[in-house]
Amino acid sequence: MSLRNVSVLYHDVFGTVVDWQSSISDACRATLRAHPCRSPLDQQQLLDDYDWDEFTRHWRRGYMVTTRQLSHTGNPHGITVDQIHLDTLDHAWDATTRQHLNQRWHTLTPWPDSVHALRRLAAHFAIGTLTNGNLALMVDMARSARLPWHFILTADTLGSFKPDDRMYTSALRLMHLDQTPQRGALVAAHLFDLEAAKRNRMTTIFVSGRPTEDSLPHDGTVPDYIDIVVRDLDELARLAQDTLAP
Amino acid sequence: MSLRNVSVLYHDVFGTVVDWQSSISDACRATLRAHPCRSPLDQQQLLDDYDWDEFTRHWRRGYMVTTRQLSHTGNPHGITVDQIHLDTLDHAWDATTRQHLNQRWHTLTPWPDSVHALRRLAAHFAIGTLTNGNLALMVDMARSARLPWHFILTADTLGSFKPDDRMYTSALRLMHLDQTPQRGALVAAHLFDLEAAKRNRMTTIFVSGRPTEDSLPHDGTVPDYIDIVVRDLDELARLAQDTLAP
């Protein structure tokens, strides 16, 4: 499968385009300084010794587990990741502080290569998101991180969560690719997402070098549902340039 | 109602942001030159004497009538404006040529003030579309006309057509404004659209100076469902600057 036949790039966002771990861990520490914790634990100890990276991973795992469960049901009650994030958040802080901290998911920092690479990709393809995030969150993130999306497709606009098939089929249909699904490529750092995209006959591009996300097996074998492997978005932009330059 | 309480601007697009009439009339003439008409009418006469502005208005009216009808039904069959445009198009040309001409709706030319004004508005508000157009069409238009949308909400993502209430309520909910609908403003050159937006408690901004769209009554009275009147998007950007500058 070659980029030559692709016209639309759909990007996973959390972990693939933005670095949730450092963004959120830093925000937790800053929040703790500004809004001391109501728990009896010693505030200083929480700042010095508490593993906020692990706390962040726990928060993120809660989101992954819940969206995966909801993806099987088609999300009939229209729950958003903003609600999941808030529900998963430990109740150590009061509601206002939790809201403030939760808002940090709206302004995650991109990986260093992301913004420049997306700008270059935007010259060759229609580029957008296919994310389990919700629209308001993605709009905030695109504005704060200057992500140059042509379109934003989200779980709350499409009515379910990845890896539910209807996320991929709706995204293809809305870009008029339902008869030519291979012209739509999913760009993601998650194997489960790419496996579902391939089940729906999309082209699949694995971003292998995101330290917080999935890696290829140690023996270097590439699962057969992956068409293209790149280390990061910069490598994808270079590949596009080499493949598609006139 | 003041811009001070608005955080999201939802824009109508056809007629409000882009000039469909001159774009399409020009495309019709160019298409006729490149793909002579199959009808027995004299080709030269069609080029010289035929009123392509009227033809374009007729094409546009077909779209207006059909979307208005479908808006009452909630568009159960998921018809897009691309399909409506094709169906409305006179069968004088073969399918390939009709497809080519229809594609011109994807690259309509903005009014002279639109792009610069939208860039300025994007500094103050989340700006996006709330249009009866479909997503693939709007993405093509945003890319060709360099419209700096933060988000694109369309009839096919929201599942109906304006002025169906669910278009406005869904747009508000997706931007987390369902509890504060007045923080969402509809910007449109069409009275029916603004009337529906006000019924859903949005702020309403009438763009009064688009020659192909609605005007205020000659006696200068402003209907009570309109909060703010501007001549064009440039005047709206100046108003935002004056109202919101620190």
Q: What order do the helices and strands come in, and which of them pair?
A:
2 copies of one chain form a homodimer.
Chain A (H helix, E strand, L loop, with lengths): L7 E4 L6 E2 H15 L8 H6 L3 H22 L7 H8 L6 H8 L6 E2 L3 H8 L4 E6 L3 H11 L5 E4 H4 L6 H10 L9 E5 L2 H9 L3 E5 L20 E3 L2 H12 L2
Parallel strand pairs in A: 1-4, 1-6, 4-5, 6-7, 7-8
Antiparallel strand pairs in A: 2-3
Helix pairs in contact in A: 1-3, 3-4, 6-11
Rg of Cα set of chain A: 19 Å
Quaternary structure of the protein: homodimer
What count of domains describes the coordinates of chain A?
Answer: 2
Using the 3D structure, state the CATH architecture of the largest domain in chain A: 3-Layer(aba) Sandwich
The major β-sheet of chain A equals: 6 strands, parallel
Describe it for me?
Two copies of one chain form a homodimer. Chain A is α/β, with parallel strands linked by helices. Chain A folds into two domains: 3-18 and 108-244, 3-Layer(aba) Sandwich (Rossmann fold), CATH 3.40.50; 21-105, no CATH class. Chain A contains eleven helices and eight strands. Chain A has helices at 20-34, 43-48, 52-73, 81-88, 95-102, 114-121, 135-145, 155-158, 165-174, 191-199, 233-244, and strands spanning 8-11, 18-19, 109-110, 126-131, 151-154, 184-188, 203-207, 228-230. In chain A, strands 5-4-1-6-7-8 form a six-stranded parallel beta sheet, sandwiched between helices. In chain A, strands 2-3 form a two-stranded antiparallel ribbon. In chain A, helix 3 crosses helix 4 (81-88) and helix 6 runs parallel beside helix 11. The longest helix of chain A is centred in the first third of the chain and has 22 residues, at 52-73. Chain A starts with 7 loop residues before the first strand and ends with a helix. The A-B interface holds A 82, 126, 128, 134-136, 138-140, 142-143, 150-153, 156-158, 174-176 and B 82, 126, 128, 134-136, 138-140, 142-143, 150-153, 156-158, 174-176.
